[in-house]
Amino acid sequence: MNENFSITAGSYLDKLQAALSALDRDQIDHAVSLVTSAWENGRQIITLGNGGSSLTALHFINDWNKSIYLSSGKSFRGRSLLDNVGLIMSYSNDISFYDVFVEQLKNIMEPGDLVLALSGSGNSENVIRAVQYANDHGAVTLGLCGYSGGKLKEIAQHHVWAAVNDMQIAEDVHAIFGHIVMQALCCKGRSC
Fold it and tell me: Please, which residues have CB within 8 angstroms of residue 38's CB and are 6 or more apart in sequence?
């Protein structure tokens, strides 16, 4: 062990393992079923988040759009509100960063779509506003959060909660959720 580091691979992986062991697996399976249902019914699956969560939201759509379509031949209508930097900057500058996701949802979201919001803290104002808008306009909302779950856990219709006070561990759990979804849908109807 290197004495110069207080965090080692072992200590980090122990924290991750503890967080994974504490997860509510039924909650995750339910969330996977929400994505599956939206896909099977031809609904949009719209992801959003800030910082590291924005990259996880993009990663979900990258994996799901490509791999699920290639394995099934059935179109996956995934999109992320992080894809267009110019649009994000326009809304941020001209309206408000707090409304950057709401304004995009107003243009593309339809009732019955699944809005999947990621926030490690569960308290990002632009995420909360987007989920509230989606709730008020007939979408299904799924929040992925960490820490205490914050406002996102309270207002999202469904959630996957990593009850851990560590941003990186919470983000790891969220990334794993995306991989579970991909494998579940890629293997749907066949043995993997």
Answer: 44, 45, 112, 113, 114, 140
